[in-house]
Amino acid sequence: xxxxxxxxxxxxxxxxxxxxxxxxxxxxxxxxxxxxxxxxxxxxxxxxxxxxxxxxxxxxxxxxxxxxxxxxxxxxxxxxxxxxxxxxxxxxxxxxxxxxxxxxxxxxxxxxxxxxxxxxxxxxxx
Length: 126
Known about the structure:
single chain; alpha+beta; 4-stranded antiparallel sheet
């Protein structure tokens, strides 16, 4: 009698099995997303000049280069970027404004997650 289904009611063990099946599918989907994210992280991103608020649409200079800069931050990965590369990127950015780059400090976690190291330069008049 324990295995008989009552007409109009769901058979509880079958309902639990279907729910458990969905849980397994969700776990596999989460695992697939994790693996893809990990594989995507295997490539080292290129260093770049970081501009805080660059994607803030409310900023007055959104989508345009700023009129002047006093500092430049270059985000990088220590394994693939040399100090000479950092200096050259900062020099090129400061040169747009007729200035030269002077290294001020390095920092961790001042840049977004993929490249958490930042080299900070001051752009000064020559």
